[in-house]
Amino acid sequence: MDFIITSLQSWHEKIGTTIRNTALEIAKRHRVIYVNTPATLIDRLHGVKKCRPPYLQPVNSNLWVLECPFAVWPVNRLPSALFKMANYLNNQKIARWIASQAATLHFKNSILLIDNDIYRSRYLKQFLRPALSIYYRRDYVIGFDYWKKHGPSCEQELVRASDLVITNSSYFTKELSPYNARIYTTNTGVNLQLYDAARPYDTPSDIRDIPRPIIGYTGALIETRLDIELLYKLARQLSQYSFVLVGPEDDCFRQHPLHTLPNVHFTGQKRVEELPAYIRQFDVCINPQKLNPITIGNYPLKVDEYLAMGKPVVATRTHTMEDVFARHTHLATDCEGYVSAIQTALQESSNAQLKEERIAFAHTHDWAHSVEKIYKAIDQYLTEKSSSASVR
């Protein structure tokens, strides 16, 4: 099968992304074009540079990244009728470009996989006429301010129009099932070659002299997702522990009093390949998410990464944490709960049996397992479609 993947996330994101890993896994068996959707005219005015040829860039023998050498209309602030018209024209322009470039690789009867790209891929099924169209919701983007005006209606339309819908949590599946009966939950995968507890890792130089025990977090430090006040209270209450936060910060984190606490250490953004070495040095890993519409149903990939390294984990009690990870993590909802859970987790940090159980559990969530669920959904749809056609 040939796959065309569109996403809100550029292939060139500096941090690891679920959809990029999904594309790489699919490309082990099928050909894939990953489309970096175009910038808007306003993006160009703000300094986003026009991409240069070659526009179809090979990643490996089965995978290409397609750049769009044009800008599209900014549509988000338009009233509803104008938004639909302008967005339709944007989709038409993008689709023509994708079709022309896919033709150079002799792609035919492709499967279109739309990863949360609810605006610029809204009408691609209509224009590209794929053999099968899939909408993949793995993030609650319509919870962000940018998407609140047109996002909910646009996503609902896209869900209804898609042949299949895939989510990475049962929470999302339940939320979208009224709009499409062909909906499947896949969860997300973890890169077990990268997060390998059996491999030796050198201690990163910037945390070599930090006193133990170390309570650690890896990932973007973003106020809309992480409970910064909870972190501040924890660091003050557990002043005998070191807190190491690995990842890029938004303005809220950069300006927060967390930076004044002597037991809190910020490393800044690191390459994905460097993260396991940091996790290896953590005595307990945390994921102090906020409880809000953006986080409540999300699948926290970092928890799989922590567990794959055999680490005890303390995380906020979200739907997915309870649904998927409760047996192998400690869950909390407030500062008092976190303090108790961290102290319990520290006592388990040297327990070899629990470490092996965590690793074994994470190994059931690799990318091959995740993508295999997508294949099964596709096979079931195509089989039913073929049976229906033969009856007629």
Quick description:
This protein is of the alpha/beta class and 392 residues long. It is 38% helix and 17% strand.
How would you characterize this protein structure?
It is a single chain. This protein has 392 residues and is of the alpha/beta class. It has 2 domains: 2-189 and 367-391, Rossmann fold (3-Layer(aba) Sandwich), CATH 3.40.50.11010; 205-365, Rossmann fold (3-Layer(aba) Sandwich), CATH 3.40.50.2000. It is built from 14 helices and 14 strands. The protein has helices at 18-26, 41-45, 80-104, 124-128, 151-161, 170-176, 228-237, 251-254, 275-281, 301-308, 319-325, 335-348, 352-362, 367-391, and strands at 2-7, 31-36, 56-60, 63-67, 111-115, 132-137, 164-167, 183-185, 214-218, 242-246, 264-268, 284-287, 313-316, 330-332. The strands form 2 sheets. An 8-stranded mixed beta sheet has the order 3-4-2-1-5-6-7-8, with helices on both faces. Strands 11-10-9-12-13-14 form a 6-stranded parallel beta sheet, sandwiched between helices. The protein is globular, with a radius of gyration of 22 Å. The mean pLDDT is 94.
Helix count equals 14
- Radius of gyration over C-alpha positions, nearest whole angstrom: 22 Å
Number of strands: 14
Low-confidence stretches: none
What is the string of SSEs from the N terminus onward? Answer: EHEHEEHEHEHEHEEHEHEHEHEHEHHH
CATH architecture of the largest domain: 3-Layer(aba) Sandwich
CATH class of the largest domain reads Alpha Beta
Secondary structural class: alpha/beta
